[in-house]
Design goal:
Elements (H helix, E strand, L loop, with lengths): L4 H15 L7 E3 L3 H10 L5 E5 L16 H6 L4 E4 L2 H6 L4 H13 L3 E6 L3 H5 L3 H13 L4 H4 L3 E4 L13 H18 L9 E3 L8 H4 L17 H8 L5
């Protein structure tokens, strides 16, 4: 919930102007709901895809204040973030709710970016891998192998979001590798190709190190995405 409408459009235009050629990586931005349609139109014909930060767990209908997956898709969005830690922590979203949203997003042709991650207390208790495994299985329960192949995952440790703390590349790799092991069980045909992003205080100063890890396929960027030059530095991370 950052940037007014005019500011959001200005940022998107700055990103478009500074992006350059990035044939080996995909870029997507996720403005607030009120700006999705305008920014999707402004980014049409560019390499920058546009998505939404959330969607309802129901189809269109009498659900005042909600925004459905079909509405998001109808204005040109291609993706949606689901199960973000702030949705889980502040709005008490459950694994089952994330599952419902994921199924609806897929049905409407959206790419769901399904987020998992542990709190600091869960990490200190040694429960990280069991927590993210539970969240992943809950989000994908009942989905076919083909449906699973059409999602993207994001590991975002709650303790590293907006705190300035960041998982070391090795800590992130441990969790990403565990998630991929679960995917090999649930959908072996797509497990190696399914993208797993890292999110948690990602900045231009740490992206290069994170992206040396074999199971980190990209980043889900928070506060750093609000500054065009910082976000562009992350997009243009340097391969080792």
């Amino acid at each position: 919930m950052n940037l007014g409408h005019a500011e959001a459009i200005r940022l998107a235009q700055e990103l478009r102007a500074g992006l350059g050629s990035v044939p080996d990586r995909d870029v997507a931005i996720f403005p607030a709901f009120l700006s999705v349609a305008a920014i999707a139109e402004a980014m049409s014909g560019t390499p920058i895809r546009v998505g939404a930060q959330n969607c309802a767990a129901t189809e269109d209908g009498a659900f005042t204040g909600e925004v459905s997956a079909s509405m998001i898709s109808s204005v040109g969005a291609k993706s949606v973030i689901l199960g973000h830690s702030e949705r889980r922590q502040l709005f008490f979203e459950t694994d089952e709710l994330v599952r419902q949203k994921t199924a609806l997003a897929l049905a409407r042709g959206l790419l769901p970016i399904v987020c998992v991650g542990e709190t600091r207390a869960e990490r200190e208790a040694g429960a990280t891998l069991s927590v993210v495994d539970r969240q992943l299985r809950g989000a994908l329960a009942g989905l076919s192998k083909d449906q699973i192949s059409r999602i993207c995952l994001a590991y975002e440790p709650v303790w590293a979001i907006g705190t300035g703390l960041v998982a070391t590349p090795e800590q992130a790799q441990e969790v990403h590798a565990a998630l991929r092991r679960t995917l090999r069980e649930l959908a072996p045909a797509c497990a190696e190709d399914l993208r797993i992003l890292y999110g948690g205080s990602v900045k231009g100063s740490n992206i290069d190190g994170l992206m040396t890890m074999p199971d980190l396929d990209g980043a889900l960027v928070g506060g750093a995405s609000l500054k065009a030059d910082e976000f562009l530095r992350i997009i243009h991370f340097r391969r080792a």
